[in-house]
Write a structure and sequence with these properties.
With about 600 residues, this protein is of the alpha/beta class. Helices cover about 35% and strands about 20% of the residues.
Amino acid sequence: MSKGSYILGISAFYHDSAASLIKDGQILAAAQKERFTRVKHDPRFPDEVAKYCLDAAGIKASDLELVAFYDKPLLKFERILKTYLNYAPLGVRSFLLAMPLWLKQKLHIPDLIEERLGYRGKIVFCQHHQSHAASAFFPSPFDEAAIVTADGVGEWATTTIGVGEKNRVKLLFEIRFPHSLGLLYSAFTYYLGFRVNSGEYKVMGLAPYGEPKYVDVIRRELVDIKEDGSFKLNLKYFNYCAGLTMTNHKFDELFGGPPRKPETEITQRHMDVARSLQAVTEEIMLKLAKFAHAVTKKKNLCLAGGVALNCVANGIILREGPFEDIWIQPASGDAGGSLGAALFAHYQILNNERGPNSSGVDSQMGSLLGPSYSKDEVKEFLDSVGAVYTELERNETPRTIAHLMADGKMIGWASGRVEFGPRALGARSIIADARSPEMQSLLNLKVKFRESFRPFAPTVLVENVNEYFELDRQSPYMLVVAPLKEDKRKPLNEEEKRKRGLELLKVDRSVVPAITHVDYSARIQTIRREDHPLYYDTIKSFYELTGVPLIVNTSFNVRGEPIVCSPKDAWLCFMRTKLDYLFIEPFLLNKQKQTPLDEDIDWQKIYSPD
């Protein structure tokens, strides 16, 4: 048996199924199932991800000390049954849809683990929000911290306040289902015509185009907010407890019309609703953070749960909250629960020590925890599809890519290990020049095939972040929004000042317009050389060439698909979009030199080493 204590964490059966592996508390590997199956937010059991984790460590399932599951299915089942009984007979359709999967799989996790992984050892089950809290605190750079978790719902809890000290996390307060900030946000996501559990960030991106006209309506009719951040929803406006939709006709009357149908026009009313929801969300999260500070007396804060991906609210907590610093789990949703469960088992169940952190750096390793592919594997795949490519030497890559970006080219970039979590962090990214006024619309319409209003994020050299943004610290995981500095903004003329709604897209408002949102904000990723040397060096070369220490960084995928993982995924995305170049380390492909893709071929069956 391999030396050391290995623990595998698993999350599955809601959305963003994942597996994570730790050894003696050190994170070795983690990935979402969607990256392997190409099914966005794939909720099925992550057997292929678990296999990847074991292979990455060079161990077998029999070498594991234990397997940790991220929630307690029996408790969750109890909540679902009680909810259906409370609303019977209204929930019968939803009940009949949910029960088969529970009876076949969700109540038989040990059997599934044995069947899929060939593992017959100890299995532990953590509470859902314990897993979130552990995923936030244990990888953080803090020896002690307040913890806030918020999402749709776990077993019963939807929001918790806790504390982390050394090798312990303790949940002190909770808000229970059906009162949920995550479900409130998802209800509005549904109402605005986006997909629940995947379109919430679109609502956040849409909000700056609107005015907060409905804030008073939301506070008066939908959610009663207390000073400590606790809240209650007025359930007469919602349908998620018993129905197949999130909202009902009373909700529609409150906001002046039925839910927007997907792909139809987004009106100013929709933008105003999004802005109002975002304002209320920020208010609740800030009050929760202040209460967490008051009861724990800790100077640092850790965040996790799906609501912690609301990077606008995170930025407000950082700027206006009482904490000296905050750390947010990069995979804050259910995927990160797999990591939290493994860490909770290591520290709190097995009672292992957690030594003091003197480095000030988290242990998430840039969240670059997924698969990587060797030069030989990449070459073998490219040759198998007849790709035309050149090989770049390591020392020439940064300058070559920098020149292409400065020339206005859009580049698919695949280098190193795949990111764990929903953000592309320079391993599977699309990169481009942030100085271009046309780049935002070009990327949205010709590469990403997504809504025109969606903003793009910058990756900025960590040492230069405060030259461009009102941010004085690292933001390695693209989870904090901050304002652009005044001296980087361009003055608007009278006509530009009068623009509203999507007309704001046409305003050239800064020296880096491709990453400047309409409210002069940006969702920032800072990059240190230690986390990804090649990516850092490329941005550094771009800085030396242009005088601008940042680039556009968006996820390497198109709308509706997961971020690419394998060489095959990257090549297919490149060939099916208007990307100009593809860099799969160490090879560079020019679109103009490729034979057009024959869509009559089933490319998913073409050989690739994934």
